[in-house]
F-BAR domain-containing protein (Rotaria magnacalcarata), 261 residues
Amino acid sequence: MSTIESNPKNHPILSISASLQPVTPSPTPPPPLIIPNASAITPTTSLPSSPALFHDDKPIEKLYKKEKQILFEFEQIVKDIRFQLSEQLKCLEQRIETQLSILAEIQEYFRRRADVELEYAKNLDNLHKQIGQKHRAQKARRETWVFHSIYKLWDMIVHDTRHHVKYHTIMSDVCGKYMYDKFNEIAEDTRRMFMKCKSVGLASHEDIEKVLNELQSTMKTYHQYQSESKQAEQKLSFILQQVAKIKSVKKQKAMAKRVEK
């Protein structure tokens, strides 16, 4: 006849008195084995109605294939992110190269415009001087010009030519000095902003790379633990089924240790 004794930890243990002969078990199944800290070792997910035996490798192989597929897809995503980060820096470099090329083109335009304005001013000045010299050389013959209305038009053209000489000389100085130097400053500012943006981008990419590496390592660890957990669930399910069939108390104690493990 079976008796129940309590150990110091108050965990019930089945024992059989040596003085009594074992009796034929009743048709009713034996009471379920009470597992210490069952909540800690019981899987959070409900066990399937017909769990696979732990020695059956087919579910484990399917799990491994699924996990490998997930890890492979994750690695592809990580590679794609790294490729996009690399392309960002390339686009930034191409952008600064294009901007500097445009600035250099505009700067070259103003340099050549300064030469053209200066040359045009010199030609106008020569024209104005030639008109003045001719007018002074024929002053005696032209004394009566002032009495004609069209003389005002001639005089206005001469004065306008002299004003245009001054105007185009100033334009040459503006294009050749002010604008050229200004676009040099713009180019330097653009380069400085590019270097700052690139340094910020590299720092951000390093942080992203660090997070991606940590996430990749965590994913591998997670799937490894998940695989071990699935194997443990299958083994535990198999052992619990075996425990329910065991009628010997001594074997039940041995199986209890396996359950705890």
Summary: Helices lie at 38-41, 58-137, 150-245, 249-260.
